[in-house]
Amino acid sequence: MLSNKFQTGLTLIELIVTLVILSILASAALPFAEVTIRRDQELELRRALREVRTAIDQFHIDWQAGRIPITSDAASDNGYPRTLQVLVEGVSHGNVTDQKRYYLRRIPPNPLADKNLLPAKQWHLRSYQDAPDNSSWGEQDVYDIRIKSEKRAIDGSYYEKW
Question: Considering the entire predicted model, what is its pTM?
C-alpha cells in the first residue's frame, strides 16, 4: 500500500550546509565587531584626554588670573595642579565666602588600561619641568597626561603620542 503522506523535515545535509553558511557569515562579522569595539575605546580615550587636559588648562588660566591664590597648596609654583585629585576636590578661591571651584567631577578612567587600577593610576603624568618624552613623573605638578601604552591605534599612530 502506498502512502500519500509526505514526510517533512530537514535532511542532515541541509543542516550542515546551513551551519557552514552561518559560520562563514559569523567569521566575516567578527573582525568588524572587534574594530568597532576598538574604535569606541579610542573615542572614549580621546574624550578622557580632552576632558582632563581642558581641566588642567582652566586651572592654570584661573591661577594666572589670580582666582587661585599663589599661596594655595593645590597649585605648584608654575600654576598647575599638584595632583589630578586636586581637580576633583576643588580649589578655594580665597574669597570671603570661601567658595571652591571644581574642574572635574571625577578622574575619567582610561578605557585601554587595567580596570583593577584606580583611574588616577591609569594615566602617565607629566610635570611642567619634565621633558616631553620623559617616562617618569617628576611629581612637582600635573602639566599633562597621556596613556601608558606602546600600542598603535587604528590609524597607525601610537597611543602614548596622543
Answer: 0.78
| Three-class secondary structure of residue 57 per DSSP | helix
Tell me how many degrees the CA angle 50-144-70 measures, rounded to the nearest 5: 110
Question: What is the domain count for the chain?
Answer: 1
Task: Give me 43's grid cell.
Answer: 573615542
pLDDT of 43: 95
Does 6 map to a domain?
A: no
- Specify the range with the lowest mean pLDDT, choosing from 43-47, 51-55, 63-67: 63-67
Q: Is 5 within a domain?
A: no
Exposed/middle/buried for residue 138 (C-beta within 10 Å: 0-12, 13-18, 19+): middle
Q: How many CA atoms lie within 13 A of 91 on its CB side?
A: 30
Chain segment 84-106, per-residue pLDDT in tens: 999 999 998 766 667 889 999 99
Integer distance in angstroms from the first to the last C-alpha of the chain? 81
